[in-house]
Write a structure and sequence with these properties.
Blueprint (H helix, E strand, L loop, with lengths): L1 H5 L3 E4 L10 E5 L2 E7 L8 H9 L5 E3 L2 H7 L7
Parallel strand pairs: 3-4
Antiparallel strand pairs: 1-2, 2-3
Length: 78
């Protein structure tokens, strides 16, 4: 979260929401992104998969800071 903030993003943790909701809400340049953070080869659990299947908007699974920066347009395209 700190690195995204240093890059000029607004970041709100959604981790406490639970029920499969993504980990972060990230804002930059008038746009918002939902991000599920996965590292070390971890995968989405069933609640996260169910949530993403029923959500009618955008949600990105990111596995690194570079991936998160790319989602918000601050890095190389994924």
């Amino acid at each position: 979260m700190t690195a995204l903030r240093k890059a000029g993003c607004s970041v709100q943790s959604l981790a406490r929401v639970g029920a499969g909701c993504p980990d972060l809400l990230v804002g930059r340049a008038g746009s918002n992104w939902l991000m599920e953070i996965k590292t070390d080869g971890s995968t989405q659990n069933q609640a996260q998969l169910d949530w993403s299947r029923t959500w009618n908007g955008q949600c990105e699974v990111v596995r690194s800071l570079e991936g998160a920066l790319a989602v918000v347009g601050l890095g190389a395209k994924r």
